[in-house]
Amino acid sequence: MVHCYVHIPFCRERCSYCDFFLVTRRELQPRFFTALREETAARRAELAGKSVRSIHFGGGTPSLVEPRFLADWLHQLDRLAHVSGDAEITLEANPEDLSDRRLSELAAIGVNRLSIGIQSFSSRKLQALGRAHDGMTARQVVRHARKMFSNISIDLICGAEHESPGEWEGDLAAACSFDLPHVSVYMLTVEPGTMLARDLRNRRREVPGQDEQAAFYLMAADRLSASGFEHYEVSNFGRKGFFSRYNMGCWQREPYLGFGPSAHSLITRGTHEVRRANARSLTGYLRTPSESVEFIEELTEEAVISERVFLSLRLQAGLRLDELRSLHTVFPEHLLEEFRRRGWVEVRSSGELRLTSRGYLFADFIAQELLPG
To answer: Which residue, of 120, 163, 225, 369, is most buried by count of CB atoms within 10 Å of its CB?
Structure first.
């Protein structure tokens, strides 16, 4: 069993807050997909005999590319491995790309889950984020996509410039009104080297502080939970049966293969686990797709344990407390009690340690503190 990720790096333009690997030269699409098929063929040994449980087309903006390119790659993958009949096939999309025709084309090639970068239903906020669509388009696209796809997720961002609690509540109310199966909520992050980071440094823009962002996040957790969503991971809310299979596979450390520039993989080789990262270069990828690698490393036992703790505590299911205790010579009970007192963690009667919605705000800090050494 394996999951697959394909990084499609093409975008119309770079959003001010984005630090993902992307290019705006859409004329390179045919060459890119030729290279993608070459890389996939070169890695046939990693696919042989595997059942593919999920495929995620990310980017970049996968909805920009011609669906026929995606269809060709899916056919190749099914020849080299076995794409399960009930495989989840997700495509990330921007609203401005999702005409009724494009929705029909995507459904026809086998895409069965859309992850739509709505970000907001407020035209003012979308303009502040530098998005190409407006609030009316966001609503229209969700309504149309809902008619053609039963499995849809939308992304929402909180913490945009001059955002008010009322504006954020409007986004949450709109999301709940569509009876969606899945919503992802992200706090606006200022990544080094982005246009947003430069504007903030030069005082050309101002965004809400950490306390305001935390309040927005907790508003989302309360509002979406009250509407029947399960807060099953730090940034993700889903109804039963609609949790992201691909993301769950990654968080539970199941094997996954990443194709395309900047894509990551987690591969099992015998008793060892190997992490691979493709280089963040389209030029290098087009030249030698199977060799455009940033690193390949065998994970140490300590790295595996650390990843398991960090990733498990991101999930609603949590981590068995006795398993965490077994990692220590002397377990830091005082830290656990302090985290309980602050309302960050809880221990279920079945023995799992899990984070609360407030605790998710400090997930990495809590995991680091509870790891040995």
So the answer is: 120
